[in-house]
Amino acid sequence: MNLTSLLALIVSSTLVYSAPLILASLGGVYIENSCVVNIGLEDIMSVGAFTSIIFNLTFAQDFGAATPWLGALVGAIFGLIFFYYMHLLQSAFMRIISSVVLC
Fold this sequence. Notes:
Radius of gyration: 18 Å
Oligomer: single chain
Distance between the termini: 52 Å
Structural class: mainly alpha
Organism: Lactobacillus helveticus CIRM-BIA 104
Protein name: ABC superfamily ATP binding cassette transporter,permease protein
Keywords: Membrane, Transmembrane, Transmembrane helix
């Protein structure tokens, strides 16, 4: 393996594996425009990914080729549930303090 193919492999792997982190960062930047800081973006991604993997392993025989798409949908739904659950656990006082400090 020569240096050029090794560099091409490293760059392509970096772009593939960094895509979820880039999308989560863009979501964090978008939500920060409303003066709300979400420090649990990685946790939401982890819950969604874990739920999607468990769904794929459990229902692979039942849904066939549609299992990855349904797993992504189930992972996104559980990520949203986790987000709202964690959002409700924060007190209104802490949201006001963090909003005032950051804006």
